[in-house]
Amino acid sequence: MEQLFALCVAGFIAISSRLNAEDQKPSVSIIPQPVHIRATNGHFEISAQTQILVATANDTAKKVAEYLSETLNRVTGFELFATKPEGGAQPANSVALVLSPQEKAFAVEGYALAITPKRVVITASRSQGLFYGVQTLLQLLPPEVFGEPAPNVRWQMPCVEIADQPRFTWRGMHLDVSRHFFSKEFIKRYIDLLALHKMNVFHWDLTNDNGWRLEIKKYPKLTEVCAWRVDREQQHWLRRDPPRAGEKATYGGFYTQEDVKEILAYAAARFVTVLPAIELPAHTSEVFAAYPELSGRGERLPVQVGSYWPNVDAFCAGNDSVFTFLDDVLTEIAALFPNQYIHLGGDEADKTRWKECAKCQARMKQESLQDEHELQSYFIKRVEKMLLAKGKRLIGWDEILEGGLAPEATVMSWRGIEGGIAAAQQGHDAIMTPVSHCYFDYYQANPKFEPEGIGGFLTLKKVYSYEPIPAVLSPQEAKHILGAQGNVWTEYIATPQHAEYMSVPRMSALAEAVWSPKARRDWEDFQQRLPVHFKRLEALKVNYAKGSFSVELKTAIIPNARQVRVQLESEQPRAEIRYTLAGSAPTRQSPLYRAPFLLNQTTTITAGVFVDGQLKEEAAQQEVLVHRALGAKVSYAMPPSTKYFGGGELGLVNGLRGNTVALNETLWQGFEGYDAEVTIDLGKPAAVEKLTATFAQQRAWWIFLPTAVEYALSRDGKNFETVAKVSHEISVEQEGAVIHAFSARLDAPRQCRYVRMTAKNMGVCPSNHPGAGGKAWVFVDEIVVEAASAR
């Protein structure tokens, strides 16, 4: 086998040394996209005589070979066995798995795959590399390889050379099993989906207010009592009736430690690390159904049947019995899970009970803590010491930064990217999972055509666009970004089928974002590979989402021409898009979109995707505004939040105006707690006659209309004259989405070059609002400047 090994390493070095520009993209649909791939001539066909060879004595590598043979045998009907090769050369009609002792030739999870008409070789320095090579090999075969027995299929794969390795070490998917319990069998199926996509971390969220799911032998009531709630599944998650006295808790479930061992072995065979997660100090009210003495009030609570907000019932930080309990629980978890990390939550801890609790206040005085944020930091740091003593490391949501980060902690940044940035700049590792790109419980298509979700809007395309490393980090700081993961919270996800629907194919998109080199990622190419991938998912009987059938309108401003180039797109590959330019609904007779077109006046575009001559969903409608400030330079007194910076620097003058209110819509720009003051440089003087800025209100999301909008004009950019002040009469109590235009028509055209718009933020949420005293948001979009000549 020395000859075979030498050829494999030489082949790997030859393939990986080629420049990306020299790569040939064969007509194969591998997800995630490999680092290097080169097409060669011919096909290799697996037959009943094909040999599977494993050129190593390593037991784990042998299991990878057995995984391959079992997969092939199941669908082909052949009887292929993993055997050790004889002699020095690889025989024809064979698939060889070679484990290289020369580790420097390969990254830890890297592999090389070479397919010729006579033989296949997968080479790696670690068994996980061999496994990922096998996943690629399977994707090169017909999609039926993932399904039921198919004796009439020819099991051919194209000849290619591939050198591949992941960009990030943390490629994760999360699943919340507290809100809704999922069987052991589905957990294994979920792990299989991760393995298919070369993802390597399963974040298993085992506890929360709606149920404790893990057997802890020292505290049997955690599963006897805390794993069960009164059944209110027929009611809406947000409006469930509380349990009645004496009503039996029947909805729930839990995993025994034997179940966990079985799942861990299953995951290990697929090189998926299982990250156990238990919540603390908040999201713990279910514990108090059995152990009320651990809470601040000592009050016995029912396991919550639905939404529980705010999370006021938390572990008492002043009670040493709480830390004894947690030490006991973590001792069992640490012994059960071999992973070096344990996730301990730390998010959304309302401090109300701590402020009321005499023990918590005494702890603060004893430890010289300034406020309850520092008390939470004390709590997390004390628990971290327990983990370190057991040889484990702590991961927590980004709230663990508040009050001071625990010494060895890793931050999972969910509220945005700021937590990950702060952790990396402090020298701590971080995993990126921001709501903007990684929360797969959000809607992924028009909610009118989707199962009910928690809200938000996160398309497949947006997931694919995610870049885990924030641009502000230095190369050294960027090394602390371990990777990213997708999160699936299950308030509105009660069945395995729905969980699959929300996870896939967004999991496919994220997998490519964390595996493939940034330069190799291409949305249009990904789209072209998806249909074959969908056939794999169909063979696996996965209830995957078909994606959005809506039309996305993109604009590009033609400099100095006051024209807009319009491009229509859909997530659907090769979509048939038909459109109108008069506001009317498109039909099968409407113009077929073939290429971008130009507009030189304000126009309402209505466009839809047609399938078999029928409009698939309702048509999307967008007004494109051609006005004097189109594409002008914009400056801010204080920039908008990085979370809500729709359209970037041209977002307020790009000709598009937000027509829905959604936190994830890409058109709005948000200002938290301060005025939105924006100055537009028109480039040269103009006779301005009308000014309009559009704002949104969504009370539930702390977004309110400005109290007033002022417009000022200037010739030199220094001396501004206020020319209009516009107010409104819309109540801050109004529920639901509100979009309101603040317009001012001047008595006569005014010559100016600069236009300043100031939107007065109300500052804080009103006293009768759930977020009373918290910072209020102002959301603004297109600022339209109309000149006299425009009439």
Q: Largest beta sheet, briefly?
A: 8 strands, parallel, barrel
Radius of gyration: 29 Å
Poorly predicted parts: 1-14, 16-22
Category from helices, strands and their pairing: alpha/beta
Q: How many strand segments?
A: 33
Cross-sheet strand order for the largest sheet: 8-9-14-15-16-17-18-19
Number of helices: 17
Short summary of the structure?
By secondary structure, the protein is an alpha/beta fold.
Note down, in words, how this protein is organized.
The protein is α/β, with parallel strands linked by helices. It has four domains: 2-164, Chitobiase/beta-hexosaminidase domain 2-like (Chitobiase, domain 2, 2-Layer Sandwich), CATH 3.30.379.10; 170-539, Alpha-Beta Barrel (TIM Barrel), CATH 3.20.20.80; 552-623, Immunoglobulin-like (Sandwich); 633-790, Sandwich (Jelly Rolls), CATH 2.60.120.260. Helix content is 23%, strand content 27%. The chain contains 17 helices and 33 strands. The strands form seven sheets. It has an eight-stranded parallel barrel, surrounded by four helices. A seven-stranded mixed sheet has the order 1-7-5-6-4-2-3, with helices on both faces. Strands 27, 28, 29, 30, 31, 32 and 33 form a seven-stranded antiparallel sheet that branches. The longest helix has 18 residues, at 59-76. The protein is globular and about 95 Å long. Residues 1-14 and 16-22 have low confidence and may be disordered.
